[in-house]
């Protein structure tokens, strides 16, 4: 899994103008089985997208299509992650 941690680069009202396109993008990744979960940070200075991929290059390629990235509204940091406990420990395993 990869945690894609975003940082907003513009004021929140500018980010919110692209929010519906961003949410549609996330819907598409969820339909493809690539999105585990996503949400805004609190306070809203960015967000976290958890992707069910094993490769950083794939995670970066996927997130490059995010309207927030394409619009210069946010940038993401990729963090590889393997759940060891809790609800996601067996996520995606047969």
TrEMBL record:
InterPro entries linked:
Dimeric_a/b-barrel, YCII
Identify the residues that the record assigns to the YCII-related domain, covering every copy.
1-79
Q: Which Pfam families does the protein's record reference?
A: YCII (PF03795)
Gene3D superfamilies per record: Dimeric alpha+beta barrel
The family assignment reads: Belongs to the YciI family.
- Check the record and name the PANTHER family matching this protein: GSR2449 PROTEIN (PTHR37828), YCII-RELATED DOMAIN-CONTAINING PROTEIN (PTHR37828:SF1)
Task: Provide the protein name.
Answer: YCII-related domain-containing protein
* Organism of origin: Paractinoplanes rishiriensis
